[in-house]
Automatic annotation (TrEMBL), chains A, B:
Protein name: Crp/Fnr family transcriptional regulator
UniProt cross-references to SUPFAM superfamilies, sorted A to Z: cAMP-binding domain-like, Winged helix' DNA-binding domain
InterPro entries with a match to the protein in the record: cNMP-bd_dom (IPR000595), cNMP-bd_dom_sf (IPR018490), Env_Response_Regulators (IPR050397), HTH_CRP (IPR012318), RmlC-like_jellyroll (IPR014710), WH-like_DNA-bd_sf (IPR036388), WH_DNA-bd_sf (IPR036390)
Organism: Microvirga tunisiensis
Domain HTH crp-type: 145-219
Amino acid sequence: MTNPLILKLEQRDQLSDDEKKALENAIARIRVVEADEDIVREGDRPTESSLLLDGFAARYKIVSNGRRQISALHVPGDFLDLHSFLLKTMDHGVLALTTCRIAAVPHATLEKITDEFPHLTRMLWLNTLIDGAIHREWLTAMGRLSATAHMAHLICELFLRLKAVGRAEGDTVQLPVTQAELGDTLGLSTVHVNRVLQELRKERLIRFQGDALTILDWERLTKVGEFTSTYLSLQNEDR
Amino acid sequence: MTNPLILKLEQRDQLSDDEKKALENAIARIRVVEADEDIVREGDRPTESSLLLDGFAARYKIVSNGRRQISALHVPGDFLDLHSFLLKTMDHGVLALTTCRIAAVPHATLEKITDEFPHLTRMLWLNTLIDGAIHREWLTAMGRLSATAHMAHLICELFLRLKAVGRAEGDTVQLPVTQAELGDTLGLSTVHVNRVLQELRKERLIRFQGDALTILDWERLTKVGEFTSTYLSLQNEDR
DNA sequence: CGTAGCTTTGAACAGGCTCAAACCGAGTGG
DNA sequence: CCACTCGGTTTGAGCCTGTTCAAAGCTACG
């Protein structure tokens, strides 16, 4: 299967053959991390960045009373800690939500890319900028939307992101994420996540049984979640 | 006065004279924006990025019922929309909270920098990565801290960021931000912001009269806000 | 001296939380 | 093949943090 990162980047701009080759060659090794294991820990100073090839992962922080906040949910094609290339010290941990297949890209290789491939460098930079745009969107949803709207918003986003890397079958995606994990993502309690999901089901906006999430009414779901996809930068442009 | 962006970047890594000159030369013009005016609007496709030389600015989004969420507060030396260089379309507006002096850096010049100055490119990239780290921290504070802790956290952050660009006098900084704006930043109502500030004052953690914010007890304030500064990347390292 | 914008106060209300227990389904061992 | 266990989901009831609405108090400025 082709590298899902290339799939992701090519959706935003053309990549030359040399650039694609450079990306493929950047992968030093591939490893598998089991569900519920840490991929990177807060405070680590990685010498390579992890690219998620398969599976689901989450960035998270723990606060004093043991509560957890998830600041990013990752799907195949996402870099989990590309920012550690320049930030050096991890300000959060990264957790495997399912079994994950992960490609390691050495920081030394990334540095070489920035020396030799300006456009590819911009594309990697773009990748981290999209992370930032998602963070801003989450901040807005968290601060100013109701729990139900926030959940609807997250579902819209995940559906589009999964679709963009070819992980949707029609209106259905596999979303192997527990209600507790959703709660930690949205800043809600597990109990309330459950009630909110029931509401979305009752309104016939989604079906969500087991891991299978089906969008029943995209139109209304985006309306409830006040969702527009601009921030995901799904447009192909010269960058 | 020297360019506060250079001050900011030199705190994180050495810059060569050529790099500094390239940064200085990147400024095409300087303009002044009055308080409460938009610097960039959501949906805009800027051809230059705005560097804040003086004043305070905020990134914000408006949601359907007219409520506003501020996703970033900016101090001198911050790029307000460096990300528009690669994201192309603004996913949020940027507002001047006070009179702002702003340097315009054309995207064409940024592209040239990425072609010719790999290390400077990494430093600009780093700049956007720090924005992202702050977003994550805010997400955590918003989702999992009490209103009081969240406010304490924000105050700690702003104090350090202002200090880092030489805008602190001892334990005091000028923070010309209204309680309504703080509310939109923290995702709280203005009324509650007021009560939370009173609590921090009563606890003798801060003084905040007019625009002057004084830290009375840094130790306890960081404890209340569960604040550690790692995410601000204030360390000088090879990047 | 008046006004406009910001801060402060009070009181009722509500959205989401906590605690506790039941339920459910898939895998596991006897 | 059935009982058991474990992780996750669902339900109920009371509570608490932060909201809303409305009005009064400040303060800087013209």
